[in-house]
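Batch manifest, entry 17 of 40.
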Amino acid sequence: MAKIKTSYFCQNCGAQSAKWIGKCPACGEWNTYVEEVVQREEITPTGVWKVGSSTAQVSNKPKPIADISYQEQHRIITPDQELNRVLGGGIVPGSMVLIGGEPGIGKSTLMLQIALSLSGLRVLYVSGEESEQQIKMRAERLMAQTSDCFILTETGTQNIFKQIEQLRPQVLVIDSIQTLHSSFIEAGAGSVSQVRECTAELLKFAKESGTPVFLIGHITKEGNLAGPKILEHMVDTVLTFEGDRHMTYRILRTTKNRFGSTSELGIYEMLGSGLREVSNPSEILITQREDAFSGISIGATLEGNRPLLIEVQSLVSPATYGTPQRASTGFDAKRLNMLLAVLEKRGGYKLGAQDVFLNIAGGLKVEDPALDLAVCASILSSFEDMAIPSTSCFAAEVGLGGEIRAVNRVENRISEAEKLGFKDIYISKYNKKGLDLTKFSINIHPFGRLEDVFSSLFG
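Output type: structure tokens
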């Protein structure tokens, strides 16, 4: 009888050790090493996916890059335009996409909705968390029926590959990777070694057969994807599904993409009949209000290739407990402190004894410096208790000297503001270079200093 081999794995980063260690030398976490049985079979059992001759050892030889033939692959265009944008233009054949998010956020609903919408393609939806009846109930609620979507409730990879050999699907969806287990590894499902082994088997299948594979992954309480960090390195694309489960809007964000930009996002609205694409997110990110309130400004930002107009809300009030509070939601707290220092030093506004609260409406997290001017205008509006006209917006960066700096792709921001009915936009005068002002009907106000903007706004 062969000796059972065991090893210790870090449950946080996936590092391996021959013995138990209190502190992981790779990630620095304490008490994360767990003993797992590692026993690989030399003979491939019946039912394991094999493409071509897996036993023949082919030695690759280096080639000059000029001699390598390349043919551009045609992406699979889905009916979901938000997903197409996030993936960089559609699904790349042979790619592996990992989708993570909090429990109940709508990951399974999104993937089942996409699987049902891919008419003309054989889609295999493998679920290790729900029964066939539960998936059927969800499909009935989504009101999308197609005979090309097949459901398999299975957790063993060997049986899954056996069914794949018979069905030959063109798209594969796994819900979720933490529920799968391979007979090669005797550890429990969801362990580091099982997640790594199952992902490796699926990755080999995707690359050899050219079938795109979608993996749904769990996240930890810290908000990171569960499993070893190597899981994110193995896949081609990592998507995160964000949003508050008590709110209706969801954001699909790219954190890694080998075939496109990592700054794209898609916005959905959760309805009783499934997820609805939000084609014009600027309308939902701007509060429809009847009365004018102080502390509210509109900033033009960019997420990938998509211009967005978002609402910046500020509340400035005298500090009650002596030490002023600085709190921001969706905006970098250090950058907020920098802008407050600029307003006090260059503008002369006494904000050192004021509590300042900043919020980006809609639950977005933005890092675009073009929102600096909108943040400053919002803070000053609340400080002076004077409302900014609802038809005005801002797109400029603020420097430490109080200067208004230019931002990239200002034409896209101006066009988006004009499309949404804004009448005035405040930009840097250094953005006028090469900008054709005659093709815009919106009033463009170029400024070079922060105090000039405030004089134009508040007099």
